[in-house]
Amino acid sequence: MKALPKIYTALIFVILYAPIAVMVLFSFNRANSTGVFAGFSLYWYRELFRDGATLTALKNTLILAVLSSLIATLIGTAAAVGLARLKSRYVRGAVMTVTNIPMMNPDIVTGISMMLLFVFVCTRLGLSASLSFTTVLIAHVTFNLPYVILSVTPKIRQMDQHLTEAAMDLGCTPFQAFWKVELPLIMPGVISGLIMAFTLSLDDFVISYFTTGNGFETLPIRIYSMTKKRVTPDMYALSTLIFIAVLVLLLLSNLAGRDKKQAKLPKATVTLED
Question: Which residue of 29, 108, 146, 228 is 20 to 30 Å from 95, comparing CA positions?
């Protein structure tokens, strides 16, 4: 019976990662086959980087992920600080519940609802192009916000509120107290939320599919359009690169989200030189 948990854990890992292992293996396949491995080769990776449409989709995806994660991190951090300062526990709980709705909603519901909203607003304003890069950016910021808030809020709760009061007693303005005292203490949560938002934006498909317009294509949408024709090993190569990028970002997010017991009080030392 003692070996049962280990067997169960191993079985879960096999179910989760066996398909990914097969995909990574066949991305190095020498032959143009998705069922027979004919030998190791980097041919499909070279072919992938010769594809202009794929490189354009990669550039679009990176621009979208960087902008949406930065905007979501700024707004989400400000929102988390504001929610922490609400005096009413019931109001704070109600606002947090409303904030978490985009995270609890199925992606297809969020995607369709935002598409209808953008089309309606643009129709009322008389705009010809209703869906574009701007609409995708707004959609990504919207569903990234709850994750940033959830990453920053625990750090704010762990922070000693007396430090901010002490800084203001020493002559700091509220902004100086936040910048010199609060921000360094909650920075691990901010970085964790930034990486999480970037990762979610990088591999999103459903919401991007419904809110994007003609002429703008992300990598997940590019992969979907490629599979309509025929599944080839270059799709495995592209999916492998995305998997590696997301894995690295998640590892960085976990490292940034660790409780830093060595985050000592000297980091919160207040100076009034500025």
Answer: 108
Going by C-alpha positions, the residue among 103, 64, 80 that lies closest to residue 187 is: 80
Phi then psi dihedrals of residue 269, to 5 deg: -65, 135
Residue with tokens 């030392």: 269
- The structure's pTM equals 0.79
Do residues 23 and 223 lie in contact, with contact meaning Cβ atoms separated by under 8 Å? no
Q: Which two tokens stand for residue 197?
A: 């938002």
Angle between helix 183-202 and helix 233-256 axes, rounded to 10 deg:
170
User: Does residue 200 have a pLDDT over 70?
Assistant: yes
State in words which class domain 54-268 has. mainly alpha
Q: To which residue do tokens 């070279």 refer?
A: 46
First to last CA, the chain: 64
pLDDT of residue 107: 86
Confidence grade of residue 256 (pLDDT, cut at 50, 70, 90): low
In the chain, where the domains are located: 54-268
Per-residue DSSP letter, 263: -
Secondary structure class of 271 (helix, strand, coil): coil
